Amino acid sequence: MAEIRLVNLRKAFDDFVAVRDTTLTIHEGEFFALLGPSGCGKTTTLRMIAGLEMPTSGRIELDGRDVTSVRAAKRDIAFVFQMFALYPHLRVKDNIAYPLRSQGIPASERKERIDEVARVLRIEHLLKRRISSLAGGDRQRVALARGMVRRPRAFLMDEPLGTLDAEMRSAMREELRGLHDRIGATSVYVTHDQIEAMSMADRIAVMSKGDVLQAAPPMELYLNPASLFVAGFVGSPAMNFIEIEGPLAPGATSAQAALPGAPELPVPALPEGASGQKLVLGIRPEHLKVGADEPISGTVFATEYLGSHRLVVIETPAGRLRARVAKGLALKIGDRIGVGVDPAWAILFDADTGLALNRT
Ligand code: ADP
Ligand code: MG
Q: Which residues form the ABC transporter domain (predicted)?
């Protein structure tokens, strides 16, 4: 199993930069996600790791060895495509055997290896079926089996659950993560779905327009986002953003929201030297306080039952705020209610650069 290192990795198509000077280390055995909106450069990054795309500059190391100009077939990395090209008319076991046959591995060893991956993936009962008779989730597992049977040093997966329906996606998330843990492979997983990345990955690199904005474990992205983009992209329901007039005096613990008639809000004190003309205060729905005595008055706009909790959308002079409240709290549309910000959980962003100013 391998450590994958990207050093100043760049890919330009003519004068369009798809991946900009990315430096990242993906640790051995890690489940690592590349997360970002469509077109941000995830697939291009993955294809460079696989050896299917030549970087414009920078390099790729596998276990410390520079493989930038090593051919894809020699990198020992399995690439699981969204629409993995299985042979529909062949039986499952012949599909899995395919890469072993082309490597000239003898029949007895082929059988041993196929049985092994079938056991790990729990598809032993499907080995004699034809691909065309399988449901989507089973096909996905066969596709993984075909990737795994070569015993690759790493797995690359590009939106592998993209074509499945919601229920199957959720089951396959657990399945894939469980599988990763059983085989201990280094996995790089590309997705635009933050729930997928947050629920599966040990660490996530959030990408936007060719840049990696932050690479961190899910909880850190959630609680300590480095920028407005990361804060807004990760977490559901989404973070609340309230515009604030700057500059803030050093040590100030309250500020004026930038809307007419908006109240003073408690804010976290900025570190020495940090400021901005315009600021944005970010606060997660579970860190808003809701109650008659809270300072920002508003009107309940909508409520949504989330099972263990309730989400309340409140129209206030500081904008429309989403708060997570106990499900027993009696609130209905049109009710007047107060909202408060817990400054201990708030993050101040510079509205111009988008960067968080008070990260811990
Ligand atoms: P993602 O997987 O995050 O959706 P991609 O890595 O596929 O994004 O693409 C990133 C950007 O690079 C996109 O704007 C895409 O149009 C562009 N791009 C990708 N491959 C090529 C190519 N072969 N030629 C020109 N532009 C490309
Ligand atoms: Mg893609």
A: 4-234
